[in-house]
Amino acid sequence: METLDADLVRQTVSGSHQAFDVLMVRYQKLIYQVAYSFYGNTEDAMDVCQDVFLQAHQKMAMLEQPSKVKAWLVRMTYNRCISLKRSAQELWSPLNDDEFVSQDNPQMEHQNKTLISRCLAVLNPKQKLAVVLKYLEGYSLKELSQTMDISEDQVKNMLYRSIRKMAASVRESEEAL
Questions:
Q1: What is the pLDDT of residue 5?
Q2: If pLDDT is split at 50, 70 and 90, which confidence band does 4 have?
Q3: Cβ neighbours, 10 Å, residue 160
Q4: Which of 53, 55, 101, 117 could join 94 in a cystine, given CB atoms 3.0 to 4.6 angstroms apart?
C-alpha cells in the first residue's frame, strides 16, 4: 500500500531520510519536467531539481498542509526557475530535440515538439506553467488552482487565453508560409 504524502512529510519532519527519499522518487519526474519546460536543457533542469529538493528538505517543517506537498514542490520549482531566469535575464529556451523525439515517428514528433515550443514561446511564465501542468502533466483544474494559488475560474480563464494566444501564433506562422 502506498504511503500518503502527508504521512511521508510528517516522517521527514521527524527525521526519516527514507520518507524524504520516497517523496523525491515520487516527484522527481514532475519537478524535472517543470524545470525542463523553463530551461530546455537537462543540465539546468537537474540543477533546479537539486535546489528544490534541498530547499524542500530544509523547509519541510514549515509546510502547513502536508497533504499538499506536491503542489508545494511544483510551486517551489516554478519560483526557483523564475528567480534564476530573472537573474540570468533569459527568456524560455526552446525544447531540446533529443529529449522529446519519439522512436515511433521521429520526424512527426520533432515537428510536434517544434510547434509546441513555438506556441509556448508566446506565453508568459504563469501561462506556460498552467499549460504544461494541464496538458502535459494532466493536472485537474482543482490541482492547478491549488498549485498556482488562484481560483479555478482564474485557471480556466488563463488556459482559455493561453490556448487562444497559441492558436493565433500558429495561424500567423501558417500565413507566413
A1: 92
A2: very high
A3: 10
A4: 117
Residues 141, 155 contacting (CB under 8 angstroms): yes
C-alpha cell at 44: 539546468
Supply the mean pLDDT for the chain.
81
Q: pLDDT tens digits, residue range 130-168?
A: 888 888 788 888 988 888 889 999 989 998 888 888 888
pLDDT tens digits along 13-45 = 999 999 999 999 999 999 998 888 887 788 888
Contact 106, 59 (CB under 8 A): no
pTM of the model: 0.62
CA dihedral angle for residue 132, residue 79, residue 160, residue 32, rounded to 10 degrees: 0
3-state per-residue secondary structure call for 85-154: HHHHCCCCCCCCHHHHCCCCCHHHHHHHHHHHHHHHHCCCHHHHHHHHHHHHCCCCHHHHHHHHCCCHHH
Which class in CATH covers the domain with range 95-177?
Answer: mainly alpha
Structural contact between residues 121 and 92, judged by C-beta atoms closer than 8 angstroms? yes
Kindly list the domain boundaries of the chain, sorted by start residue: 1-93, 95-177
CATH number of 1-93: 1.10.1740.10
